[in-house]
Specification:
The complex is a heterodimer of chains A (111) and B (111).
Chain A (H helix, E strand, L loop, with lengths): L3 E4 L2 E5 L4 E7 L6 E7 L6 E6 L3 E5 L2 E6 L4 E6 L8 E8 L7 E2 L3 E6 L1
Parallel strand pairs in A: 2-11
Antiparallel strand pairs in A: 1-3, 3-8, 4-5, 4-9, 6-7, 7-8, 9-10, 9-11
Chain B lengths: L4 E3 L2 E4 L5 E6 L6 E8 L3 E9 L2 E4 L8 E7 L2 E6 L8 E9 L2 E4 L3 E5 L1
Parallel strand pairs in B: 2-11
Antiparallel strand pairs in B: 1-3, 3-8, 4-5, 4-9, 5-6, 7-8, 9-10, 9-11
The chains are: A mainly beta (111), B mainly beta (111).
C-alpha cells in the first residue's frame, strides 16, 4: 500500500475553473510535504512546499496542511490548459532527505 | 545552469546485460538522489548521497543495483543482469534543501 495516497486519480476541469487535489500520508513520522508538477514527457518540477499547519498561497496555487491528520491539499484557481499535468504529492520526515511520492493526480484542463 | 544532466536519455539492453546510468548534479548541490518512475509504481526513491557519502539506499533492490558517487560532479547507477521489470525511467535529482531538482531521466528498456 502506498504510504502517500492521492485523490482523485484524475480530474477534468474547465478552463477558468478550480481544481482541488488531496494527499494523505500514512507515515506518522512525516513532517514535510511538497507538491510537484510533471508535464507529459518532462521531469517533475517543484510547485510548492508546506511544512507548517495552515495555508500558503502563490499566485493561482494554494496549499493547505493539517499535520494532525497528515493531510495536504492543493487548489488551482482559474485553471489554464497549461496546468494540464500529473500532480505529485511528496512527503518526508526530514526536509533534506529522500522523498516518498504518491501516484499522482492527472489534471486535464479543457478550453 | 544546465540543470541536472543525465546520460544516456534512452538505453535499450538485452535481458541479462548490464546497464550504467550517469548523472551530473547541479554544481554546489550537496545531495544527489536516484528515483525510478513507472506507470504502475509511480515515482520510487532508490538511494541518495550527501557530500558524496551514501546516506540511504533503502529503496535499492539489493542484489543487482548499485550506486556510486566518486566525486562531487557525477554519480552512477549500475544495474547488473537487467530484467524486463527493470524497465522504467530512472531520474537523478540534486538538492539544495528543501527544493529538489530533477534531471530529464534515462528511459531504460530491457528486451
Amino acid at each position: 500500500q502506498q504510504k502517500v495516497q492521492q485523490s482523485p486519480e484524475s480530474l477534468i476541469v474547465p478552463e477558468g475553473g478550480m481544481a482541488s487535489l488531496n494527499c494523505t500520508s500514512s507515515d506518522r513520522n512525516v513532517d514535510y510535504f511538497w507538491w510537484y508538477r510533471q508535464h507529459s514527457g518532462k521531469s517533475p518540477k517543484m510547485l510548492m512546499s508546506i511544512f507548517s499547519n495552515g495555508e500558503k498561497e502563490e499566485g493561482r496555487f494554494t496549499v493547505h496542511l493539517n499535520k494532525a491528520s497528515l493531510h495536504t491539499s492543493l487548489h488551482i484557481r482559474d485553471s489554464q490548459p497549461s496546468d494540464s499535468a500529473l500532480y505529485l504529492c511528496a512527503a518526508s520526515s526530514n526536509y533534506a532527505q529522500g522523498l516518498t511520492f504518491g501516484l499522482g493526480t492527472r489534471v486535464s484542463v479543457f478550453p | 545552469n544546465a540543470g541536472v544532466i543525465q546520460t544516456p536519455r534512452h538505453k535499450v539492453t538485452g535481458k541479462g546485460q548490464e546497464a550504467t546510468l550517469w548523472c551530473e548534479p547541479i554544481s554546489g548541490h550537496s545531495a544527489v538522489f536516484w528515483y525510478r518512475q513507472t506507470i504502475v509504481q509511480g515515482l520510487e526513491f532508490l538511494t541518495y548521497f550527501r557530500n558524496q557519502a551514501p546516506i540511504d539506499d533503502s529503496g535499492m533492490p539489493k542484489e543487482r543495483f548499485s550506486a556510486q558517487m566518486p566525486n562531487q560532479s557525477h554519480s552512477t547507477l549500475k544495474i547488473q543482469s537487467t530484467q524486463p521489470q527493470d524497465s522504467a525511467v530512472y531520474l537523478c535529482a540534486s538538492s539544495l534543501a528543501p527544493e529538489v531538482f530533477f534531471g530529464k531521466g534515462t528511459r531504460l528498456t530491457v528486451v
